[in-house]
Amino acid sequence: MTMLSDIKFAFRTLVKNPKFTALTVFVMTTGLTLCIYMYSFIQGTLTAPLPFEQGKQIRKIDSIYNGMEYNGPSVRIHDFDDLKKRVQSYDVFDAYDDGIVNISTSDRAFRYIGHYVKASFFEISEAKPLLGRLLTDQDGEPGAESVVLIGESIWKSLFASDQNVLGKKLRVNSIQRTVVGVMPASYQFPGSGRVWLPFISSSKGVARADGDYVAVYGVLKKDVTDEQANSELKTIMAELEQTHPKLNSNRTAQIRTMQAALMGNGTPVIAFAMQLSVGFILLLACINVGNLLLSRAFEKSKEIAIRTALGAPRGKLISQMMWESTLISSISGILAILLAGLWLENSNKNLITTFPFEPPFWWNVALSESSVIAAMVIIGITALVTGLLPAYKATGEDVNSGLRDGTRGAQSKSVGRLSKLIVISEVVLSCALLLLSTGMVYSVHQQNQFDYGVEVEGYLTARIVLPEVEYDSNEKLLQYYQSMRTALQQERGVEAVSFIRSLPSENASSQNISIDGVDYGKKPQYPSVSSVTVAHNYFETMEVNLLEGRTFDLRDKLDSPLTAVVTQNFVKKHFKGNKVVGKRFKFIGNDKGWYTIIGVVNNVLHGQPTPANIEKQTVFVSLQQTPLRSISLVIKAAQEPEELRSMLDHISLSVERDAPAYNIKTLRASITERNSGMNFVSELFLIFSAASMVLAFSGIYGVMSNTIIQKTQEIGVRRALGANKGDIFTHFIKQSVKQLAIGLTIGVPLGIALVAMMEKTSLAQGSMILYIAVPTFISLVILLAVIYPVHRELKFEPCKALRSE
Amino acid sequence: MSALIKLTNVKKVFSTDEVETHALSDINLEIQKGEYISISGPSGCGKSTLLSLLGLLDTCSGGSYILNTHQAVDISTKQRAAIRNKEIGFVFQSFNLISDLTVSENVALPLTYRKDLNKQQRIEMVKEALEKVDMGHRTKHFPSQLSGGQQQRVAVARAIAGNPSIILADEPTGNLDSKNAELVMALLDKLHAEGKTICMVTHDPRGAKRAERIIEVFDGRVVSDSRVLQVKSEEAVA
Known about the structure:
A: alpha+beta, six-stranded mixed beta barrel, 25 helices, about 20% strand, B: alpha/beta, six-stranded mixed β-sheet, four-stranded antiparallel β-sheet, about 35% helix
């Protein structure tokens, strides 16, 4: 037979068995789709390379303070200057800053993310302007003309794509700036900025304690590894800690890729778990299809024996049988590529609409060339794995026994062993996978149900950043809050208005404190707390319970003694639950002085509901005493909060034309968005759980059913010897219990280990319920997979079973 | 002698959607305790179906069947299983030993379904049965490690282990060479000599002649029921 006739024969066989073909294609498509999707998703996001020549060498330098990793501008400018003088591992080592930029016209104001950058920033990111020029280091020098580089979208919306835009003026954060260039829409490095301004932060003439925090990046020298650079960084930071113990105590830094900095350090673990999960699913699919093909191959053992008797060489028989698996894998592969492509397209839309931030420009959630090549490799390997073993086993049978009827000896024993091995593998893989997936789904469900310590429904929130040039004093800031509150409270549907630095679910600022009367020794290790600045009516507006003392009121003013309200966690940790009203603490590295605790409230969660955040101690300080330019506004609505959106938009501009309210959304939506990444991962794992359940069930059922069909004659013999139906059920259940026990003995600890690994990312949570439910579910699957086929076999009289071949 | 088996007007009809096949019709048959019977006839005549009905491996479509005073028609599958276990020993053409079980486990198999035996009793019964067929030295072997003749001897041991009322043998030498076939037939002769009731289906005339009574089946009916002595006389005349 030629190869073409082999293919034709395999195709005809598949067409003749539509149920078998549909089942194998379904199983394989499920496994391959998940695998291709996950590979493409990870390649396109978590591990996507920066598309620059030096992309592989670009690193972000971030602070670690009190063990907490910070992203964004997190390095004090003075520390940056010291680092820049001493680091040896980089070709480029520089700083930039991020910030909210308000651009206002005569009748409107717009809010954008802006980057304050130096020339090197554009060099490493290979920036080329659409019009005009890039920013230079001279643009940031004192006395230089105020300039701005705008993105294509601003050019289109504010200047109607005017080719003569260069030299025109734009009011940016209350300052008139000259447009010197337009950047293409495709340029968004490192985030989703649309405005670029000269970097002006400096340590010159600024006390170290008052220094700005900046984002630091570097381009590693080609012969320097991350470990070497990290080691150098930590050594310098340790030296700075010695030199400036007050400000740098418990402060170090780390280098990360831009991708890791954006997604957090848990990303590699999540990516690993995702890849492992889809790997398990694909393996399950391969085992299932391989088993189905093996069963088919044994059904054809007589045909194979005839072909062998007629002189067909084994290699030829194997290659002929392999075409079947190749066709199944190819059909499944094509379907999987199409489905994965559609799914990726859908995910891309979801990422844009539901994520709290704009996805980085280097993300490409789509089927890329490398994904398709990887898919082809996966399909090829799958075809080989699923086809080769069954073909090899089936063609290894003794020709004589194949030609004789009803003789089953060593062959059936080896097949029996293989079936047992397959069932054990299926139990191990499905158990581990189900524990991991359900652990993640359970954890995210728990987190979504978490009580944030405030009322969540019925609030509209927004962010406001007041321009520095206009709001250069505390009095002006306080006046703004008062004007805004008064204006909003006059509107219908507004019940109360308050302000807070970080909304519940947003990360709060972490600061070290020193409690009055506590001796922290010569090498002090100060405790760290979350510090949140709130308006005096915040607790009442958000329905936070006062447990002791009082909350802020109009007595807490700029010139009155500093006061603070603390949470239950704070009292428990630092005062062992004793009375704390009247006790004092101060922030380290802040010369404001002692804060007197005036009250205790229930715990309020800032950040995602991870165990670390839940345990955090929080101190609230008064906005009246510490006014801020960047603040969140909270409106308690007497009606549907969304209906107040346009009113808020209008009022915010009428109170301050250069400070439009942005991120206007309900508190519930805000929390949901913040958890969207977690929910997205959880949804993926929900799909993995469903897929693993379907594959495990179909696989285990397939193997057990096939095993029992092969034992039809044995069932007949046992019944002839007097076994009743109960005896037969008991016999097969006992046999499967052994396989189940072995599978669970390996699968449960493996699953628990995977959950423990993921617990570090707070994305998975082990639970005794799951540790019982998952093995129980698998046991039920096995039970069902035994009972149904045995029941089917028992429908016939024993004489029929005895005659079966 | 009292009748161990009594079939009256037994029939067996196999029905498919379109065709009704009368495999057996009006079978009237009595088998006495201690008899050695062979059922013979051409392929497809219904002899194996008759053996299946006798062994309660299948149900009659009509008529009555009494086995050792038990009414064997219109009874539950559980009752049939219990009767098979206690009253009947099977020897099959293709041995039908379970490949995953050792020789002694195979022989013990029918005994494991009996609630009235303890482990020690089962061990002794297995040992006794294997010694009767001269296979006591192969207890730990698996079927695949035995020759065809040895496997059939183990199958005979399994059939007699529970001391059944009757041994039903379906072409017991069909898969054996002449030497092993002779050994197995000699074994059945020995069991008969010890008082066992044996009913054997065979189309081998030499095997059939070893029985003391030959029942011939043709087209689903008993066409001849004769003592071997008579057959021998007829052969002499011919």
